[in-house]
Protein 1
Amino acid sequence: MDMTKPIESATSQEAAVTIQRPHRRRIKLGTILQHAIIIFFCLIIILPIAWVMLLSIKSIPDAYTGDLWPQKFDFSHYGYVFTQIPTVITNFSNSIIVTSATVFLTTVSAVLAGYALVHLRLPGAVLVVALLVGTLFFPTRLVSLIGIFEIQMAIGLHNTLPGLFLPYVTLGLAISILIMKGIFEQISHEIVDAARIDGAGSFHILWTIMLPLIVNGLIVLIIINFVTAWGEYLLAVTLTNDQEVRTLPVVLATTFGGFGEWAYPRIGAMYVMAILPGLLAFIIFQRWYMKGLTEGALKA
Amino acid sequence: MANATYNPTKTRRWGLNTLRNSLNWVYLLPALVFFFAYMLYPILQVFYISFTDYHYISSDPVNFTGLKNYFDAAVDPIFLLGLWRAFVFTLIFLPGVIFIPLFVAILVDRVQNPRLATIYRVILLIPIAIPGPMIFVLWRWLYDFQIGPINTILVDHLFLFDPRNAPQWAGDSPLTLPAIAVMEWWWGLGYHTMFFLAGLAAIPKDFFEAARVDGANEWQMFWHVTLPRLRPIFVILVVLRFGTSMAVIDEFLIMGGLNRALPTYTWTVYMWHLSFQLGTWFQGYAAAIGWLGAAAMLVIVAGLFYVFRNRD
């Protein structure tokens, strides 16, 4: 389990121990307070999510009384939204298609680019990096919006799934390349040189030697781009107006709760289904995610 | 790929070497294709139409109108009010998104038990696994006066208000922008805490030893050793978050809609409204508003970098 521990904490603990040794009793109270405050913040993070999960299994009258704990549970909402609201299954599969395509395209582009920027001789590489960093300080998404709309209209991609995932790739591309660059910088050039002397081509080196070394970074990229594409809203409402091609989160964001089909516990159930894939992926991969984050992501 | 048959004996020839290096650009090709097609080209196109009277729903020929759209926007009260609203939001948002994570990071950094330290980090990071728009939907419900738990707790459990004077968190209320800022703090807490934790971990431990030998207490060490070392992270976060919060749009569209009277109707919402909803979709003018707002932001970002420049 020691693997889950971020690399740097070991040294900081040793330091903290030496700081506290002289007056242990006073620090003890401080430690309790410290944990209490952290737990308070953790609760603030968890409670809203717990509330919406509870909402999705409340009976409909209970959802409207405002009571936090329901008098009566009702687990039928999940079945209801899948069988009674005809577009939900379409929206769900749209989400899966759009997200997988975006994640795949962005990750492949970012890995190839990051590898080339760090480990290959590339005339003009500095320019590319400067451009990428520049896009982080400019509201690219906002300023490019009208132009993207014009392009998709012109080539007939309005109201189509490729019309969504192609522009989605650019949303996370710059940060993904910078993260990948940070990860590749952790790998020593000697490995590449050694392999090259053995006659390995640059793609061969990437595929067989590098790939196993960048797994943590890949997981960070996949999660970041998954979350971005899965929930993207602005481009989706701009580039589609047909409920049939929209993704599940967009349907939720454009729906106001009410009665009948859109009663709160029912859209609560839709909501939980919409956030669950991301949450599960994060919980399952958090070990690698944390390591990837400390290895390169935060340095980017 | 291109140089799979690369032979080390040939590299001494300069021409082949350069050619081989240029072939390495093949690796950047996929990224560059997306970058040009869906970022650079549309941005330049928007720049071009900002100098025209282009209406999307119109068959009239497009005329070049020079700087007219920019001059019109510069005196357009809706745009200026929108810019001001975005600025007010940024002022509320920035302190909380920097100082709360800094505070939490200092606490988490001192957690001794490695397993607990990891659990805290994972819990705090949970919101990054939820897409932004989904967070806005969740908080729209949390703030709801009918089903929202926040008012339920304030009214029914803490008895701070009764239903008639319970706070209104959304719509036309002075609390709307602070309420959205609180939501953003919640969303970014773990992520920004991780930045500061990385910064804290990067401080060499002998700095503290040296300070202690010199007789510094905990507070002095924090003030004179820790804070100056966190400065680069601090600067980057202030500048980055200033930029993102001035250009916020999804939050305002989801939580406020397209009602001009609401404090959520900022310049970004106005731009979107003009481009894709209002009248004949005057995208030429909307493009000018987009560029003008972005330019105003860039000026302030440059100013921030100047203020925070390294003086030593």
Protein 2
Amino acid sequence: MKLLVFGCKTMREGVLATAVFLITGVALVLIGMKVIPEVWFFPHIFLALGFLLLLFAPVILVSTFLLSVFPKAKEKLDNCDH
Amino acid sequence: MKINDLLPEFITRHVLIAIIIGGFGGIGFILFLIEFDHYTSTEEFCTTCHSMTLVAEPYRESSHYKPRSGVRASCGDCHVSEGVFSATWDHFMGMNDLLAQLFGPDYDDPVINALHLPDAAFKARKWFKDRDSDTCNRCHVKEAIYGERPDTLAIHLEDARDKSCIECHYNLVHRIVPHEKTFKRAQWNAMIEEEFSLPKGTAKELLKNK
């Protein structure tokens, strides 16, 4: 249940996770396209993983945003140290 | 006058920075998705799987690959929807094919591939029908299908007025597969056994062992 308590820390973690997912996703896709040799299905697996990470990045960010606009969460976030 | 004076109160410096970074990040994200969709829609990419090279053989002999006009349709032009979000969704759903390729039957084997082809064809036809053959309409306009016979245009404008392209043109590009309503598995299996000189009953066994 503690996960559901949305505060400054979870807000930062959400934004950070988005950035990590986005950067890792792009990196995996580029690696899958340019670096990995066409052995077995390795390039496809890299591409699929990168693609999934890329798609989840905005999902996390949007969820974080939606949680942050809940009235109670908003009050808490107003007291965050930036 | 400071910039802060021009902005509403709730847009603080941090919010402004977040909007700018998020905005550029969002633009980058969409551009990357467009590039990704474009790359994964090419024939070059699709045929990196051996199973797809088998499917591509008849395509390379088809009028969609060798048209008189020189307008060539690649895999994605027909099998991936238009628009970044629709194309991304199609690629997301297309990951099922990757999973099937990794954990399913050995589609790289020409016999297995041919045996499963009808199921793939029916699935693809349904995909086209559900979208009212949207990807066909990227290039083809019903009102402009004059053809060589005098009644071609009339057929498309009258008889096929409320029909989707795929309802009639379901054997255009890839290996011919009968319509789902008339398809007979036993006959298909016998044809594949004959084509690959396999003993009778092998096809059924191979399908059972998938």
